[in-house]
Amino acid sequence: MPRHRPPATALRPELARLRRLNAGMPAATALLPRTVDHRPAQPTLPLGEPPEPVPTSTLADHQARQLATAVTTSLVEVIAGRRPAQQLSAWVSPEVFGLIEKLAISHRGSDIRLRSIRVQTPRPQVIEIAVHLVQRGRSKAAAVGLNIVAGRWQATGLEIALEARRINQVRAVA
Question: What is the mean pLDDT of each run of 10 residues along the chain (174 residues)?
């Protein structure tokens, strides 16, 4: 069994101490004390001001979520062929309506289901929705953008990935 020997520069003779050897031990052993550096690797950082409290859900957030849920559910039902597309005409831009009609033709009768949504309101008149869909047991994704157009909420952007390596999209005009 080879012995590991530290380099000569690693030994500090002034710290070495001797101990009595028992039978079967190597002829000489240099014991160095274990040195533990208790100083932190980084100086203590000063404490800043505590973070601002995150506001709890407001009535506007609740209403945005209700609207997002209703519009997203309707979009999925139209694409799956469970609802007529005309029911959405007032709630979507003409570009989004065209995409939904196209998807409804190609996915009619499919088992697309809405699994969950995440809603954000980055600005007062904008709602962004991240959508998790399930189709034939596989996860799919969509994103919907709602904006106020002529005084009413309207879906002006839609990105949806129902087929492998293909994203159908209509983006909102900012």
Answer: 57 64 65 63 74 68 90 94 92 94 87 93 91 93 94 94 83 62
Q: In the structure, how many helices (H) and strands (E) does the chain have? A: 2, 5
pTM of the model: 0.64
Give strand ranges (E) for 34-125: 113-123
Helix (H) / strand (E) containing 72? helix 59-79
Return the bridge partners of 166, or none. Answer: 163
Q: Which amino acid is at 128?
A: E
Under 8 Å between Cβ of 159 and 168: yes
In residues, how long is the chain?
Answer: 174
| Cα dihedral 75, 81, 82, 88 sign | positive
At 166 the pLDDT is: 81
Amino acid making up residue 32? L
Token pair 């949806």: residue: 160
- Tell me the C-alpha distance between 157 and 96, whole Å: 6
CATH class of 59-170: alpha beta
Show Cβ contacts of residue 146 under 8 Å, excluding neighbours closer than 6 positions: 67, 68, 71, 126, 127, 128, 129, 153, 154, 155, 156
Structure tokens at 68: 């997002």
